[in-house]
Every structure is written in structure tokens, then in C-alpha cells.
Write a sequence for this structure.
């Protein structure tokens, strides 16, 4: 076994999920994630946790959903499992990213609604979602299998403790600030953040961060004014979206365009009122991620990028009792902070040309 | 997909497990049983049942157990799952029958003890265990993959309703009888069965029969006198056993020999007092099984054979409140009812040369 698989499993179990002896751990194993499951099992055995592995097969799900009439009974037994479980680890990494492409949307929706209680119980555990590199995901990223594996492990096997400390410098700045301004090629936007809380997403339940890899700081802006051009290509609702440009006035999108995929962008914006407002401002800080792979889990964490999400805001960023932007969607769009870019908090430059002010390359 | 996989899934869900709409069904998928899992998922979706697939991977289990110190906590979450589940389907069919060969026996035993509650809750559901033909199982049977698949589907895809009706003829004879006598080459043994109940093992929970394939009638003899030669080769405790011969007096083995594996047979007999007595007399009636494959699940069901098990008796065969033979072991040994053989109940020949008296080949 590749030593990196073992290191991935140990990072997941110890740093991310903080598994304790005697914990009841449910591990969902995607079709292609067998090798990671074996390594995770060894780590859980060593820590004295209990293990129940579930089979997260897209092909099994597809067959089940296509045969079902859509009138789903509540899954009480599965709910009982997650009500008692301490930790849920999802090992993603299928064999075909389009495996469920021919499941009717209404059945998929009805199934998700019937499983809302299961989802909630699962989210109440110390849950972490991660990705095992498979040939299918390499293909989706346009990369060879070998190169993709290097890419994933560079992203996952970080010195998380030291990255968390670095990210804390940014959360401190954001928590103390009232306004963020982003300046880059095709971008000059101002985002009020007074009273909002920045999350240090350090790939650990101890940081309320549930993805491995992570490596971003995010908050929920209260508005937006200006324009942004998103130059990192991304697939939105199955459609390639390139150089999307949004113009904001008083927090709302008042104009938009895209070099490719403009109709899909229009669809997103038309979802509901909240879809025309921002739910998230995120700053990618994972230096192991050096290129986009059309997978938002990785792309939005890429060091030297910022992302804005249209739609729903996360409660963790909001003052207690305050509702943030609400929407059925949360669509992340990403822009590079290359040569000539600036990130400012209350008028003070905290990142220039992609270098934070605590980094060597930064000149004040 | 091979149509036989679909037929296997439908037989499992409808005939064997009698799945109802809304049932919570847990399906354990062995490493090599993916294709059957897809077909079972489609059948469960069609019947409107809920599905939770678990990953029954020997390699995951091995890694977990080898890393564990053996001090297992009770798996409460998994127990809660099975306490609420209606049906449990085990789809066996791994990729290496020796996958867990290097797990220490004491850890394996401690794990099984900690999971006793889970096992009991699972056995309280409408559970069925079946086998998906894999290359690993074909190899264990000494057969090509193609031939092994034919073999498995011939055994599984029976007209179960009609076989159940035929087997009922034999259970009626046994329930009314007081004594069975088996005569074959190297065999002449008499087994008292008065007051014992014969089970019609028709591969369905409706018959209290939990294996697919099945196709045997079995009861618990109260004693044994005479000798038996078991001419179907079988692996016992990892050792090839051939032409085992047992001599019984007053229900107990008083002499034994074997052409191959005599020491392993001696080990079995030395386990405890009950290991020298019989717990089961079974009559194989599945005509789809035409050759032994060194897998007792199939071999003991082979039409034209009878089997006797040293050790533990099944409660279903005993009068209420009566304890049958008790032992830590239950080792099935099989003999062919070829040309020259006879099966008698109370002196009346009910099978001759392998043909029952209701069959065309039988001459009374």
C-alpha cells in the first residue's frame, strides 16, 4: 500500500475526526475507495473505535432509485444508526462521476426529502468527508492517474496545525474588520462584514470544518458593491462556466455575463431571490492545491484564490439569532489573486499579488 | 447484466426474504458481490423497501482486527440499526477465501463475543444469506469462472414452490416415523427420530430457512447405531477430509478413521462430549447441485446425498423445552446415496439408488 494512503487515513481519523476509543464510527466507502477504507479500518482498529462500513455505491443507488416509484418510507433503521453513531466518515471516490446521470430528478428529490432526518442525524455526528483519488476523478480533472494521486495527497497531507495557525491570522483580521475589498483583473468589489464571524476551516471537527482537504477562511458578507470576474473555470449544473462576470449594487446582482455558460449562470441567478445575493466570501489558503481540477472541494481551497458563493450563507458566520442570506442554492465561483491583485480589510492591504502580508513575498 | 443475476435478486427478495413495501432492508455486500447488489437494489426499489448497503469486505475486517488490541467496546450504533431493521440480506462472494487467514484467533473470538448482541438482533430479522459467484469461489471449487457461475445459478434458480411441496412429502414421512436407517456402500446406520420435527428448508423465511440456495430436509436424531462412510470430500478446519468412517454405539462415536485427514477428524471429535454425538440428519434434495464444490452451503443440499452433523442440534427440530445435542461445533459430513443405497423410515424404503419413491426411477 502507498504510504500516503496510510497517512491520509491517519490524518482523517486523528486530525480531522478526532476519533476516541470506543467511538461508534460509520465509514461510507465509495465504489473506488476500497484501499483508503482498508487504511481507515486499520487506524480505527488501532484507536480502539468500533467500525461499521457502509457501501456508498453510485451504481447501487442508481439501480434503487430508477426502480422506485418515488413514494419513500422514512428510513427509521438507518436513522437509529446515525442517532447513536459518534463519527461519520465519507470516503468519496467513485468509478464514474456520471453514474447517476439518468436518475429522474423528481425521484432524487423525493429520496433526499425522505432522508432529511438521516442527513440531520449524520450532520450531528463528528462527520468528515474526504476523497480517495480514483481514475474517474483523475479523468474529470483532465489528469493522469499518477499525477492526480500526487495532486490529492499534496492537498491532503499538509501540516494542518501550522496551516490552522496561519489561517487564524486571517480570521483575526476579518473578525476585527468591517469591510473587505477585492481588486484583481476585472474585479473591484467591496463587501461589508461587520459583525460577521470568519471560520478557520482547518479540516478538523475541532474547527467545525468537515472536509479533508480544507484550507480556507470564509465568512458571510452582508452585501456587495462592484464587479467580479471569476477566471477559474468550473462546471455548474453540468455546464462549463468560464469568465463569469457579476455586477453588484446594494448586495444584488444587477448585471452578469460569461464567456462560456452564460445561460447556466442565468439559471442559477433565477433560482430565487437569495440566489442573486452572496452567501459566502472565502479565501483559499491550501498551498498543496496548485491548479484547478473542476472539483469545488479542491478548487475553492487553492492558495492565491478567493471565492464568492451565490446563495445560502453558513450559520457559523452569523451573529446568534441572525438569519443570513437564504436560498436553495450555494454556488461557489472562484477568481485568482494573481500579479496585480489586492485584498484589503478596512482599506489596509493584507494580501498583494497573492502573498499575505506575513509572507516573504509581500511588500507593504 | 446477466439475466440470471436479476433472477437471483428477485428470488432473494421475493421468495426468500418476502420483502414488503416500507421494510427497512440492510444488505451486506461482499467485496466481489457488486453486480448482485445492483440487482438487489433494483428489486428493493421496485418493491418500495428502504435500502442500506453495508460493505462486507474481508480486507477491511482483516485490517481492523489486526490493528485492534482485542478489547472491543459494544457496537451500540450498529445494534440500534439491526434492532430496527426488518430484513438482513448477506450477499457473500469475496475475492480471496483466505483474506482473513492471518487474523489472530483470540482477537477474532473477542470481536465475535463483543458483537453477540448485533448477531442476535440480525438473526431476529427476516435474514437470508446467499452467494454471488466470484472468481475466488470458482477457484476454491476447482472450477472455471464460467462453469462456476452456471453451477451457482443452477442451484439458486429452482422452482422453489414445487421443491418445497416435494420436500413436504419427506418431512411428513419423517415426522410420522420413529427411526431412519441409511444403507449405502460402507454405511449402515440406524437413527431414532421419534418426537423430533423435520424442517423443510426451502430457502425462504416463510419456511424458517435462511440460505439461498437451500433444498434439504433435516431433523435432529436422538441417537445412532452402526457405521457411516462419508465419501464426499470436504475441508474441515482447513484440512482435506476424505472417506471419513464413523462407528456409533448408543449415539456415540466409538471408532473412526479417514483415508485423508484423520487427525483433523480426531480434533473435531475431541472438542467436547457433544462433538462425538450427532446433531443433524439432513437429506439433500436440490437437483440443481450436481457435484460437490467443497462448500458445505452447496454440498449438503446436493440431491442424492445425505449428511450427518457431529455436534450442535437445531432447536427447530426439538420438542418445546427439550434440549438437543449441545456442542461448540457443528460439522457436516456428507455421503452419496448412489446405486445400491437405501433410505428407510420405520423399515419402509423411501429412497432407493438415490430415487425417492415418488420419483419415476423408483421401483418399490
Amino acid at each position: 500500500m502507498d504510504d500516503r494512503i496510510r497517512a491520509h487515513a491517519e490524518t482523517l481519523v486523528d486530525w480531522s475526526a478526532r476519533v476516541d476509543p470506543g467511538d461508534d464510527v460509520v465509514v461510507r466507502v465509495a465504489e473506488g475507495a476500497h484501499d483508503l477504507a482498508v487504511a481507515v479500518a486499520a487506524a480505527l482498529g488501532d484507536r480502539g473505535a468500533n467500525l461499521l462500513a457502509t457501501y456508498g455505491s453510485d451504481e447501487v443507488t442508481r439501480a434503487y432509485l430508477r426502480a422506485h416509484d418515488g413514494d419513500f418510507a422514512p428510513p427509521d433503521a438507518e436513522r437509529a444508526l446515525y442517532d447513536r453513531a459518534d463519527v461519520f466518515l465519507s470516503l468519496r471516490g467513485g468509478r464514474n462521476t456520471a453514474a447517476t446521470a439518468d436518475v429522474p430528478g423528481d425521484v432524487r428529490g423525493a429520496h433526499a426529502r425522505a432522508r432529511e432526518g438521516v442527513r440531520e442525524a449524520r450532520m450531528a455526528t463528528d462527520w468528515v468527508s474526504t476523497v480517495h483519488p480514483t481514475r474517474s476523478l483523475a479523468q474529470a480533472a483532465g489528469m493522469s492517474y499518477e499525477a492526480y494521486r500526487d495532486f490529492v495527497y499534496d492537498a491532503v497531507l499538509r501540516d494542518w496545525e501550522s496551516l490552522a495557525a496561519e489561517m487564524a491570522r486571517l480570521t483575526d483580521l476579518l473578525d476585527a474588520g468591517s469591510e473587505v475589498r477585492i481588486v484583481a483583473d476585472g474585479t473591484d468589489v467591496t463587501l461589508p462584514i461587520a459583525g460577521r464571524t470568519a471560520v478557520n476551516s482547518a479540516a478538523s471537527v475541532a474547527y467545525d470544518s468537515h472536509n479533508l482537504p480544507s484550507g480556507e477562511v470564509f465568512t458571510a458578507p452582508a452585501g456587495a458593491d462592484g464587479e467580479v470576474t471569476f477566471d477559474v473555470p468550473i462546471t455548474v449544473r453540468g455546464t462549463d462556466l468560464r469568465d463569469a462576470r457579476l455586477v453588484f449594487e446594494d448586495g444584488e446582482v444587477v448585471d452578469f455575463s460569461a464567456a462560456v455558460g452564460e445561460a447556466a449562470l442565468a439559471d442559477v441567478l433565477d433560482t430565487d431571490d437569495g440566489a442573486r445575493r452572496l452567501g459566502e466570501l472565502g479565501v483559499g489558503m491550501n498551498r498543496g492545491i496548485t491548479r484547478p481540477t473542476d472539483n469545488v472541494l479542491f478548487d475553492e481551497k487553492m492558495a492565491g484564490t478567493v471565492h464568492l458563493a451565490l446563495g445560502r450563507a453558513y450559520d457559523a458566520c452569523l451573529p446568534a439569532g441572525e438569519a443570513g442570506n437564504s436560498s436553495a442554492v450555494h454556488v461557489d465561483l472562484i477568481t485568482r489573486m494573481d500579479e496585480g491583485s489586492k485584498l484589503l480589510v478596512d482599506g489596509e492591504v493584507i494580501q498583494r499579488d497573492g502573498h499575505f502580508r506575513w509572507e516573504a513575498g509581500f511588500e507593504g
